[in-house]
Amino acid sequence: MKHTSRIGAYHIVSASALISVFLLSILISLVHKTNGAIAASHSHIRNHDDRSPSREREADGAFSPRDKSHYGSSDGHHSEFDHEAILGSTKDAEEFDSLPKEEAKARLAILVGKMDLDKNGLIERGELKAWIIRSFKMLSEEESKQRLEEVDENEDGLVTWKEYVQETFGVDLDSNPSSIPLNDIEEQQMLADDKMLFAAADANKDGYLDAVEFVSFTHPEEDPKMLPIVYQQTLDSKDTNKDGEIDFKEFIGDRGHDKDKKWLDDEKDRFDNELDWNKDGLLDRQEIISWVLPSNEEIAGEESAHLFASADDNHDEVLTPEEILEHHDTFVGSEATDYGDHLHNLEKFKDEL
Known about the structure:
This protein is mainly alpha-helical. It has 16 helices and six strands. The strands form three sheets. A two-stranded antiparallel ribbon has the order 1-6. The protein has a two-stranded antiparallel ribbon with strand order 2-3.
């Protein structure tokens, strides 16, 4: 949020003018303090510029992974991802960030009891990973619900292709029933890809996407039936020799034209050692899907390992409730500020869980 204040030079010639300037200086001081508090708080706001599933891609064509924002460009760690991985909700994570420490710990203690699937009083790696996978699914559902509300123009709980195109691309299909006037080739491809995803997500083929189908559309990694569509779209985009597989040259495509040798070497190393599992120099169907749709299970395993490294103080490969609560700021975050009546009470939180 950007606040710009411009104060001109005034010749103050009266007592009332002096009072006005004094009051204005107080107001400016309060604004600066408020802005400082906002800047210091955690941000869980999603970027809504990428409103099309086809826009949620990396430079190489892969869908953006769930943990894309976990580490910054300078390898800085973003704790917001940890909080969302435990809470399964951006909104809940924002609320936890504002809770007093003891309130946050009390709520986290309830969650710890639910993570402990075998009720032995300890949280094992598998239990934490299972909890995080559950949280990722809840995050996808929350994000999809918010997006549906943006697109659902007539508020009937369903999304038509017409509503989606109108809201996302700014094109009214009633005015352009036969063609969609998009001048940008990339936008045209996004629209074509989205139409394929929309049709695949429409399980009952009624022309509408309900809340469940809309999750499949906006988060195809959550629905196995979407995988063949994503695979075919990737082949259409990159498989220039039409052999059903992708070699390194096809993987790089036009991205390599303005890159230096180091970039190409890094991409070759990634292709050979991360994507090409069977080391045959080609990406087959399974390898392509794994590349284009990063596995939430793999990301959950990495996040579980990260949280264990942060909280397993005695290195015994299990987390006790005490260890988790000792590191509550890593798991859910909190501020040592009492927001009084704005907080939900603990009993209500227990009921919701």
